[in-house]
Fold this sequence. Notes:
Elements: H1 13-18, H2 22-31, H3 43-50, H4 53-61, H5 65-76, H6 83-91, H7 100-115, E1 119-120, E2 127-128, H8 130-136, H9 152-155, H10 161-170, H11 179-191, H12 193-201, H13 205-214, E3 220-222, H14 229-236, E4 241-244, E5 247-249, H15 252-259, E6 276-280, H16 282-306, H17 322-332, H18 336-348, E7 352-354, E8 362-364, H19 366-372, H20 376-389, H21 419-431, E9 437-439, H22 441-451, H23 463-478, E10 481-482, E11 485-486, H24 488-494, E12 514-515, H25 536-550, E13 562-564, E14 568-571, H26 577-586, E15 588-591, E16 596-599, H27 602-610, H28 615-625, H29 632-644, E17 649-651, E18 655-658, H30 662-670, E19 679-683, E20 686-689, H31 693-702, E21 708-709, H32 744-762, H33 791-804, E22 808-813, E23 819-830, E24 833-838, E25 843-848, E26 852-857
Parallel strand pairs: 17-21
Antiparallel strand pairs: 1-2, 3-5, 4-5, 6-9, 6-12, 7-8, 10-11, 13-14, 14-16, 15-16, 17-18, 18-20, 19-20, 22-23, 22-26, 23-24, 24-25
Helix pairs in contact: 5-7, 5-8, 10-11, 16-18, 17-18, 20-25, 21-23, 22-23, 24-25, 27-29
Amino acid sequence: xxxxxxxxAPRSLAEALRARDDASLAALLRSRPDLITPVPTDVTQLATxxxxxxxxxxxxxxxxxxxxxxxxxxxxxxxxxxxxxxLGLMAGDPGEERDRAVVAALPxxxxxxxxQALVWGGDDRLRLVRTxxxxxxxxxxxxxxxxxxxxxxxxxxGMSPGRIQEIVTAAGLxxxxxxxxxxASLAALxxxxxxxxxxxxxxxxxSLEVLERLVWGPPYGQVTAEPAARLRRLxxxxxxxxxxxxxxxxxxxxxxxxxGGRAHRTPEPVPPPVTAHAAHRPQVVxxxxxxxxxxxxxxxxxxxxDWDEGGPAVLRAGGLSVRDLKxxxxxxxxxxxxxxFWVELAYAAGLLASDGEPDERxxxxxxxxxxxxxxxxxxxxxxxxxxxxATRTPGLVGGRDAKDRALSALGPGLDxxxxxxxxxxxxxxxxxxxxxxxxxxxxxxxxxxxxxxLRGPQPDDDLRARLARWTLSEAELLGITGRxxxxxxxxxxxxxxxxxxxPGADEPVGPGDKLPVHHHRTxxxxxYTSLAPLTPARRAVASAAAARVLAPLLPEPLDxxxxxxxxxxxAPGPLRxxxxxxxxxxxxxxxxxxxxxxxxxxxxVRRALDAGRAAADxxxxxxxxxxxxxxxPLTYLIDDVARRHGHLRVGxxxxxxxxxxDALLNxxxxxxxxxxxxxxxxxxxxxxxxxxxxxxxxxxxxxxxxPAAESAEGDVLITRADAHRTPPRTAPEPVPEGPPVPDxxxxxxxxxxxxxxxxxATTPRKPADGTAPAADGTAPAAGGDLPRTSSAETxxxxxxxxxxxxxxxxxxxNAEGAASQRVVAPVRVEGxxxxxxxxxxxxxxxxxxxxxxxxxxxxxx
Length: 861
């Protein structure tokens, strides 16, 4: 006789989890992080939590299509089912030719369901957790995705015994003594391939046609009070069973026979491939993406410069108004959805926020000034990193929320927890393609739908599909991709491994930038395994690596412009920050593109003079930074504006104009355009106006004069615009989708706590009264699960345990009134306290004796 005992099959999910090793339990907690929030006290509580409806729904939603099809098959299989039963439901009857891909993929799918504690038991007794079976099993209110109806046993549960006996007799079966055995014999008939084939062979074609219409679902049909002959034949033989007045259903066993045993019409064991519709040279992709990255930096800087003196007002409900978004789009020369993207990107990166003042407006944050000082590649890496992890979704701007309220840029309601995961997954699929390969959007969406299928009816445009489309377009805008293919600096940002080799990549190519399209496919491995999201520390390293890769591809900032005789300056590339800032004051941007064209006008020159620059400073600046001689017309323009600048002085009386040239004042009074200012002469050199100084300054400038503001002391006021900044602000925190995935430290601590709590709950212990323990090794505790002993008995047992060094089992009630049971090894008992090593908490703790409900010795092994 063998001395080895065969391990008994688990009787519950708790027993199945208790038999797992630490690595398997850690995998469960990693895949279902909601089970660890808070940490369960023992394995029984872990199993209970794993079977709750909310947790099971969340786990089912994260299954790929084939794993979900496997769970759906188990929901209509016998409980418990064998692996052969499941294989038959997925691949068809043994006598038929089975799909090899289904046969090969089923162990992986079943292993994944076991790992996530949705299925437990050995291959001879597979059990789907009860909650999952309730969610996936067919019912009139919730039809199964398999299209199968209830079993014969379920469909005949409310049928009269006489009617069941009539059906059994019509089907050629002997009468039975009760309804249960009659339904069982009918189900056995429908499950027998040969007898079922003979029964169907007796039916005419019109009756078989009815069955064919119901076989793949929905299995329910309507009948009249007097059904036609073709329906009557089916009803008499139990091939259709009534479920309600006027409603019949095709029993599950009949449908499975007609399907050849398959639960699904089209099993999908292999994910659809992501195919490349175009291929470009990697150098072209990187150059295109780098150019767009430079445009992204320029656009964000232009946006915040436009809001330098205080941006649009914040709506009462939060966010930008539609009018302000349109103005921003016009200023950036982009469409409104693209403008919303840039605004939200700056906000996600912490460069933009509300100033929090009574007249609340949007403005740049102090972090924007720090960001401007960084090298261009690092600035881009910061934007791209913020985009990858942001849950705010600019694509929703302009839509409506669940309460039919408009969604505005920078407003509430734009967070979608799935956005970072979808972005990362889309880019991971691109990273799995060879360098330069641009995938088709449809193949990306098909792959995502396989990896995260929606249960129940699927809308034409679900949120994940929209997020994927927005990811592809936003990645192109940001310079993550170029011509639809992932760039080298984006691969570094994602921490992606080297891409697969392009066939024939080492061979010389002809002219042009495109390569032959080979319809590349992503690997057929399970989902979410090729590229894991980065931890914060690794994300910082990847961001620095991406900046290093991108830096050589970006144009070097220039320290010069080309002045032209038509009062323009051409910047042939990006300018260094001091030069760009000065030109923004001295000239107006006329056009953008590969080169920026600035135009000098009297108004722009006056703006520089108002900012405190002297004419000599402007001449010296232009001569220093121009690669061409300073044109004479530009010199004349500066001198002419400078000569007239400040000749008129405007101050506050209400407002007045002072000038030593009374002829010039007469000219202003005679001008019809000054009527709105309501001027009158107070003295030969002074005019008074019934307007504030700012309006008077603007009015005279519109008339073509160059007045200057003066202080109460008569000094010229410098009107340099000070940049408006918000108080220090942090970037918005992403809204997580459920509990975060636990790190290794938390996992290790949780496993220790669960194992220790399980030890306390399951360790055999001796009863305090000396009676024999129960059959399972535990002692019954009077008054509930916690042991109950008197104070004297508790103290004596604790003191004895200190002397012997043995562990004991105690019941303990904490200060909040929560009761628990623990296994402790007492070290010292004094002053009404016991100090002991707590196996449950895996540390030494001190317990007040008056909070210990009782104590019991552990039973001998």
